[in-house]
Structures are given as C-alpha cells and as structure tokens.
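Annotated sample (chain length 283).
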Amino acid sequence: MKAARRTTVAGAILVIALIAIAGVVFQRWPRAIPIAAADTIFVYSPHADDETYGMGQAIAEHALAGRRVIGVLMTDGDASGKIPEWIASAGEDLDGDGDIDKWDFGLARREEYRAAMGALGAETLIFLGSAGSHGAEGFRDGALDRSSKDLSDAIESIVTSVAPSSPVAHMTVAKVDQGRPLASEPREHPDHTALSDVVLQLAENRAEELYLYKVYVLYEAPWWKRWTNTIVRGSDTAIARKHEAIEAYAGIGRASTPELWEASREGDLEYLAVALPGGLAGR
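Output written by the structure step:
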C-alpha cells in the first residue's frame, strides 16, 4: 500500500516536472517575427544602434514583407563618454565649422545609423537630435522626458504628417517594468523609458499596432537569463541584413557599448516584450 502511494507520488512529481520543462522549452522556442498589418511602420530609436541590436531582424522582416519602414532617431549621442576618445582618434569636422566637437560626433553617429538602417531596408530616416543645430533645437542625449509635451508632440506630428489618414504601426524599445517581469528590461535608461512610454501612449490613443523589443537583455550574457514574453527569430535573409547593420556600428557603436555589439553579433534571437493590440506578447 505504502509502496503504491510512493509510486503514485513519484509519478505525479515526474509529470509535474515534465510539464514544467515542456513549458520552459515552449516559452524559449523562437517564433516567427510578427508582421504588422499596417503598410507603414515607424521605428523609433532613442540612440543610434538600439534599433539594430534589439530589433534589427524585425525591421528587416517588415521591409522584406513590403512594409514601408520609417526610422526615427531621437538623439545623436552628444552626452557620450566616448566623445574625447573619438575626437582624439577618428574625429572629423563633419559640420565644416573649423573644429571637431561633440556635434561632429553626433553627425558621425547619424552616419552609422544611416548605414545600418539602409542595410535593414528602411525607406525614410528622420533625425530629431540636436547635432545638426549645435544644440539649438532637437532632443539631447540622456534628456528625453516622458512628461514633456515636446516629445509626444514631435512624434505625433511626424506620424500625422506622413500618414494623416491611414493607420500605421509602431516599433521601439522596451523599458524596466517591475510589474511585468517578462516584459521588463533588466537595466534602466531614462531615454528608453521616456520613449517607450510616449510611443505606447500614442499607439493606444490611435488604436494602432505596437511592438516593444528588449535591448539591454543582451547584457545578460548567459542565454538562460534572457527571458521575455516572446522570443522570435527571423529568416536567414533578415538575420544576414541584421549582421550587416551591426557591422555599420563597428566604429562608435562598438566603442560605446562593446558588450551589446558583441552579444548582438553572436545571437540570432530577438526579445519581444510587448505587442499591442493583443499581439503575441500581450500586455
């Protein structure tokens, strides 16, 4: 009798363990990248390279599917700690004002972004940073403010000017969200938080599709720490385009965040945190 009970308990434990293992395998099994129904998708990047490292395959897949991809770069890196090093080693007077400074650095970052987004298949690029005006206008690196009407107005103005009547889709970075661990980035950045919140609000207000991808999860080197709501993998063509885009950041991008650059080169998975309305990842 006791032996039979022990056998039953052991069997139940084994079944529970197998179900748990199957759940983990299912959760980590990469799915196809969801393609927006809208013909136009806006990809917002807080800094040059975030879009490529976190969602490069997703961008490429949308372009391959015939969607019009519009890239919006919010800042130019004018607060980067790598500016003195760049000036000393590879700096160029890109704005032609007779000196080499942080604004030239910002323009160099734009060039890397142009090359990367071109490789991914973007059709149009929009720059909202301050390098072109020497800080007189535009958004500054590290200073995006989710409570600022300037930020939300700028993004909404771009969307309505490009697509005044037809619906569009939106893609940008995820943020730290303690209430939703699987959707949360493991590392905080104020620019990421501000942009994620503003784009989420815009998409909800317009009842449009939204995709938030993780970037900083790539800092979590062991693969088993890289959790999210939905793990995705693109086609071989999309992966090849992403690798080409990553190489576009072999200069400043690599020097700025070498861990991210290396991790994005080594892995072929992307981490979808949120998909709205009612997409794969849910809320």
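Annotation: DSSP finds nine helices and eight strands in the chain.
Annotation: The longest helix spans residues 2-28.
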